[in-house]
Amino acid sequence: MQLTGEMIIGQQLVRGAAGTQLAFNPATKATMLPQFGQADAADVERACALAEQAFDAYRSTTPEVRAAFLEAVANNIDALGATLTERAMAETGLPQARLEGERGRTVNQLRLFAKVVRDGHWQQATLDSALPQRTPPRPDLRLRKIAVGPVAVFGASNFPLAFSVAGGDTASALAAGCPVVVKAHGAHPGTSELVARAVQKAVADSGLPEGVFSMIHGDGRTVGQALVAHPSIKAVGFTGSRQGGTALMRTAAARPEPIPVYAEMSSINPVFMLPAVLAGGAEALGAAFVESLTMGVGQFCTNPGLVIGVAGPDFDRFAAAAAAALQPKGAGTMLTAGIHSAYQSGVGRLSQVDGVQVLATGQQEGAGCAAQAALFRVDAETFLASHALQEEVFGPASLLIACRDEAEVLRLAAGLEGQLTATVHCTADDHGFAAKLLPTLERKAGRVLFNGFPTGVEVCHAMVHGGPFPATSDTRTTSVGAMAIERFLRPVSYQNVPQALLPAALRDDNPLRLARIVDGELRTAI
Amino acid sequence: MQLTGEMIIGQQLVRGAAGTQLAFNPATKATMLPQFGQADAADVERACALAEQAFDAYRSTTPEVRAAFLEAVANNIDALGATLTERAMAETGLPQARLEGERGRTVNQLRLFAKVVRDGHWQQATLDSALPQRTPPRPDLRLRKIAVGPVAVFGASNFPLAFSVAGGDTASALAAGCPVVVKAHGAHPGTSELVARAVQKAVADSGLPEGVFSMIHGDGRTVGQALVAHPSIKAVGFTGSRQGGTALMRTAAARPEPIPVYAEMSSINPVFMLPAVLAGGAEALGAAFVESLTMGVGQFCTNPGLVIGVAGPDFDRFAAAAAAALQPKGAGTMLTAGIHSAYQSGVGRLSQVDGVQVLATGQQEGAGCAAQAALFRVDAETFLASHALQEEVFGPASLLIACRDEAEVLRLAAGLEGQLTATVHCTADDHGFAAKLLPTLERKAGRVLFNGFPTGVEVCHAMVHGGPFPATSDTRTTSVGAMAIERFLRPVSYQNVPQALLPAALRDDNPLRLARIVDGELRTAI
């Protein structure tokens, strides 16, 4: 398939007329054709108007139609094959194996949501029987969840497939019955065009209204803001920087009708190394930690940016092993020139804080936007006193924190901002202390994990990729896993609605065979 | 029990030192003793600090302990008997039967949440098995929902028991495991003190940390805002005016850590009278509508403020019957002098819009803050052109809208703001048109009801008392019914957590006997 630089607005290909943009290869620092035309206000309006027009028809499709559509999107993305991988490699500097894995994750995610849609648990069908003899009589009441409305999705730079045009936000919104308008990320416009066409074709082949999906190009501060401000948009999915996410939150809150923003933004993912586990295996843990830190040039939301332990010979052995493992690590190409320069400033900022010691740096040489890994050490008192040390440095840099004792470890945990993840390494001998730490970590993070590293986010039913601000804008939700669909739903209650007019999920004969809550008791379908 | 005018901060009685307030009897316009001392910043700080201190211990209580505590609160409120009813009557002008009914509703609500806590469905326990043979291996992942943190609750003036100190917001937050700090409504400070002491005693008798519950007096613009801005507060429940609710929304969004606000604010609750039902029973419907409109002096969030039909002889008969039923209605005492004067301005504003016709007014004479019922009529075009006609007039006033045809009814429905309820009156002959109207009503309202009136909100599992803005600040939620607990929960995922450290809800042996989602399948406990 030949890239044209056009946007996908419903079933049309539209050349944006508000300027152009070229893609950029971060490994070679070369720009690439074609020219991508940028959206103007009329393009935003057209995409949103089509989404609005499509909404009622789309949300009323049967679970089977919607599930088959999601599977068609997955199949079309699979069919892009090497074309997609090659363009994504050129635009992101990510290696082939990683992008092939990410494509697998993307299509599996779409297929998981197809299963979720068919299962129907998301409808939360709930029935309370009429009690005509009661004083006053109780009416017949039935509840289901319905789609919230058209959704704006902002692709992320660090997952050009799994968190971009047809990534987790889009898949869960489409599953919920919401049309989607994507603002493509400027870091991978060609990848975005390829995937958007795959979705566009699935819309047509499934006989769905064209407004179910559109994708536009443009700057976040103009086109992105206009999209979030559009009255037809009823929710926003975003993965990116704290600055970008909070800007969208402000716009959404200032609308005549405020809408929810699901922004996944900023996390430093503390790792707690408890005493007994360090006593038993400080060296191996130091090396394993550096593997997690430098994987993908540290460009994961769940990258371990802090390691916390009690000062002493075991923590020193861990630090030495980590430093030794980090020093030979080559400089990897980062996703964009902007991310690269932000990383360099962040590392520079950390080095200059009084009391912060540079433990090790990786190799410097590398092509293009190459990032040198870096490991720092500081004591807990200095860390707690400096808010700057809690700011995310996106990339392969991490800070080891030595605490005086377990009490200081607990104080430090309590002083952390919200996180996507919190990790504990321990043996059975550490369980007493781990039990004291766990209640704090639950409050700080969306996912608490033991004896592993936080990179690698499983797409399943029990995943939470979320957490308190600033990790996300909405701690009640997850952007990965089956529960992500709940972000795009709202409950509606039906009182004394005639059977002929009730939605299928709530009819007496339960044609969708849903498990339902009936008079407060869960009843599985026979 | 003698009222003292003190606030309840943990297990202390504290006399607020930032000025005093007297209660006001809207029927007699007399003020009543004692003096209620108002909170200063230190009182807000103390209540929030206690809530924070109590949080981890309270959220870790077993479902049985928490359920028994909610039942103890209910029993203590029941035990207040006539003391409570008499003070509430004097402070609100509401009649005895209504307040006794509302007390029943309040304690039933607490008992419903006790049942909800024991059932445990709110934890959404979800388990995904480890797949060690997979490449890469899948870890063991388990998810549950936990309490979000201390909650600020703002009592409503129009439900001095069911939506005030120990009302739906407080009951659902306590059920979720969240300590609560109530800002009492200035319209019923004595009622608030009585109920707050009932809760305080239940906290002590249940052996819970004192910070689980506090109640302070003060102005919403100062004390209320300080409470919402306090870093320990993690969510807000509010029922009241659009102005008050949006002010709290702004404060919550501007915090360093933004938090969710659940504000139930403003709704005019459209009622659609379809042609066949009017042809068959216009007169009876006109009279029944006026009963709903004037019940409780129209001071319900779900009061029917709009009636929409197709112009013609049947709609005229309906209007005439409603006018005839309204005219003899006596002027009832409103809750506060402020609500009364806002009602008078609202009615005055409606009368002055070009094209609005006064169909009937009720009787004028009445004691104290007495409201004269009023019925207006307008055509759809005028209504759609005037945003002012969509503003809620809180009280016994309603507007009949005559549409040219069914298409104009649909356009009018599509032009409405978000609502708590939307009502359809129809016969089987109207089902074709009702089916066209329903998708729009679902998008506009939290509850769609047929052949009844929206006043009367059942407390059950399938209730949604919510809806799109401005009906509420968060369309994903309900403030009445079992699902209200979800507002105060957030999901946490546990990865490879040792059995010894896992919360009971997620342990292999399932000691709470919960229904859980295991590998995507719902499994009820044996």
Automatic annotation (TrEMBL), chains A, B:
<comment type="similarity">
    <text>Belongs to the aldehyde dehydrogenase family.</text>
</comment>
<dbReference type="InterPro" id="IPR015590">
    <property type="entry name" value="Aldehyde_DH_dom"/>
</dbReference>
<dbReference type="InterPro" id="IPR016163">
    <property type="entry name" value="Ald_DH_C"/>
</dbReference>
<dbReference type="InterPro" id="IPR044151">
    <property type="entry name" value="ALDH_KGSADH"/>
</dbReference>
<dbReference type="InterPro" id="IPR050740">
    <property type="entry name" value="Aldehyde_DH_Superfamily"/>
</dbReference>
<keyword id="KW-0560">Oxidoreductase</keyword>
<dbReference type="Pfam" id="PF00171">
    <property type="entry name" value="Aldedh"/>
</dbReference>
<dbReference type="InterPro" id="IPR016162">
    <property type="entry name" value="Ald_DH_N"/>
</dbReference>
<protein>
    <recommendedName>
        <fullName>2,5-dioxovalerate dehydrogenase</fullName>
        <ecNumber>1.2.1.26</ecNumber>
    </recommendedName>
</protein>
<feature type="domain" description="Aldehyde dehydrogenase">
    <location>
        <begin position="22"/>
        <end position="459"/>
    </location>
</feature>
<dbReference type="InterPro" id="IPR016161">
    <property type="entry name" value="Ald_DH/histidinol_DH"/>
</dbReference>
<dbReference type="GO" id="GO:0047533">
    <property type="term" value="F:2,5-dioxovalerate dehydrogenase (NADP+) activity"/>
</dbReference>
